[in-house]
Specification:
The protein has 148 residues and is mainly α. It has a single domain, classed as Isoleucyl-tRNA Synthetase, Domain 1, CATH 1.10.730.10. The protein is 57% helix and 0% strand. It is built from 5 helices and no strands. Helix 2 (34-42) crosses helix 3 (55-79), helix 3 packs across helix 5 (121-143) and helix 4 (96-117) runs antiparallel to helix 5.
Length: 148
């Protein structure tokens, strides 16, 4: 995008949506929200001053944020209103799926720590994104108990 070419998008239009009638967006810009825009910006491996961000990436992260919201609502509903979490050091998962997802989570936490120390925010975002979609939602919530 370039100001001189007149194809710069206002971030507020990505957050709230806009009915722009430009060649690039014949149907306007869909509302993506601030969290999705932040994730889209952080997901790029930037080596210069420019980020090549397309609205499709922000929209993809909007869907991801929605999936996070729905998964959290599902888990909280499954745990019930009287659930009281145990301190992590006292938690001993009994079911193999619980142990599996916690091991995957530990790997992601370690990777995120390494990536953030190396200032590779895009790698940390990718690790969290992959864990949440492929391990937690696609495997654990679908096939395992919600016993954490």
């Amino acid at each position: 995008m370039s100001k001189s070419l007149g194809n710069v998008i206002d971030p507020r239009d990505v957050i709230a949506g806009a009915s722009l009638q430009k060649r690039q967006f014949p149907h306007g810009i869909p509302e993506c929200g601030t969290d999705a825009l932040r994730m889209a910006l952080c997901s790029h491996n930037v080596h210069g001053d420019d980020i090549r961000l397309d609205v499709g990436t922000a929209l993809s992260y909007r869907h991801f944020c929605n999936k996070v919201w729905n998964a959290v609502k599902f888990v909280l509903g499954a745990l019930g209103p009287h659930f009281v979490p145990q301190p992590p050091e006292e938690t001993v998962p009994q079911h193999p799926m619980d142990r599996w997802v916690l091991s995957r989570l530990a790997q992601v936490v370690d990777e995120c720590g390494r990536r953030m120390e190396a200032l590779e925010v895009h790698g940390a975002i990718a690790a969290v994104h992959h864990f949440w979609l492929r391990s937690f939602c696609d495997v654990y919530l679908v096939g395992g108990p919600v016993c954490l």
